[in-house]
Amino acid sequence: MSQAVTLLLVTHPGIGTALLAQAKRIFAADTEQSLNGQLTDLYVLEVDDDLSAAQLDAQFEQLTANWQEQHNVLLLTDLEGATPASLALRQARRHHWPLITGLNLPMLLKAINYQRIELSELVNEVLDSSQHAVRILQAAPSSRLEQPH
Amino acid sequence: MIHQDIELCNRLGLHARAAGKLVNTAGRYACECWISWNNRRINGKSIMGLLTLAAPCGATLSIELDGADEQEACAAITELINNRFGEPE
């Protein structure tokens, strides 16, 4: 089994911590046997978009200062094109870390579940799982679709 | 290989926290773990697989374990489910 991949959530305020709190609850992180010790190497950076790009970069680099030689890092962000994703993309390019956008709870659960597989495999697993988690569980009534505007 | 059928007896069935505990338990063992219900068969070590089963209280899960520690895994999983995942009655 590989070393755990470090997961960093780069999100709008409130989103990363809320998702992580729920993931910890689901994996019973308050118990000693939480996911075989896998609930480690999890970080959240919630981005205040009042700050400049340089200030945000500095915040990011402060958080990851000890990771410079770390190649097993996966960045997850919530909304492509928004400030957190732009920050994550700049840093992902700088450090050659993979970055996935569209962060949701299924994506995070999958990432934690498989945090100890190879990084390239993890990226594929996370992407596949989170995309499959978005689907129609109950379709709209067909009569609504047929109503004239 | 071991094949064991176990009925979910906790009120909420295989909800998120229960699925998390099942993943934790299955993940402690090296053997493969496959769980089937309602014509679906998923990897018992996959949180998303377990959640998409959406198995309710009363559902009988069919559990297959294959590997050197399958007996221990079967005992642990059976105990977890029969103890209602640690939830109250």
Which features characterize this protein?
A: 149 residues; alpha/beta; 4-stranded parallel sheet; 6 helices; 4 strands; B: 89 residues; alpha+beta; Histidine-containing Protein, Chain: A; 4-stranded antiparallel sheet; 3 helices; 26% strand; globular
Give a short synopsis of this structure.
Chain A is an alpha/beta fold and 149 residues long. Chain A has helices at residues 15-26, 53-63, 83-95, 105-113, 119-132, 142-146, and strands at 6-11, 42-46, 73-77, 99-100.
CATH class of chain A: Alpha Beta
Helical residues, percent of chain A: 40-55%
Average per-residue pLDDT of chain B, rounded, comes to 95
How do the SSEs of chain B run, as a string of H and E? EHEEHEH
End-to-end separation of chain A in angstroms reads: 57 Å
Oligomer: heterodimer
Trace the largest sheet of chain B across and list its strands: 1-4-2-3
Q: Within the largest sheet of chain A, what's the order of strands?
A: 2-1-3-4
How are helices and strands ordered from N to C of chain A?
EHEHEHEHHH
Task: Give a verbal description of the structure.
The complex is a heterodimer of chains A (149) and B (89). Chain A has one domain (6-146): Phosphotransferase system, mannose-type IIA component (Rossmann fold). Helix content of chain A is 43%, strand content 12%. Chain A is built from six helices and four strands; from the N terminus they run βαβαβαβααα. Chain A has a four-stranded parallel beta sheet. In chain A, strand 1, helix 1 and strand 2 (42-46) form a beta-alpha-beta unit. In chain A, helix 1 packs across helix 4 and helix 4 packs antiparallel against helix 5 (119-132). The longest helix of chain A is centred in the last third of the chain and has 14 residues, at 119-132. Chain B has 89 residues and is an alpha+beta fold. Chain B has a single domain (2-86), classed as HPr-like (Histidine-containing Protein, Chain: A), CATH 3.30.1340.10. Chain B has three helices and four strands, in the order E-H-E-E-H-E-H. Chain B has a four-stranded antiparallel beta sheet with strand order 1-4-2-3, with helices on one face. In chain B, helix 1 runs antiparallel to helix 3 (70-82). Chain B is globular and about 35 Å long. The model of chain B has no long low-confidence stretch (mean pLDDT 95). The A-B interface holds A 25-28, 33-36, 106, 109-110, 112-113, 129, 132-133 and B 16-17, 19-21, 23-24, 27-28, 45-48, 51.
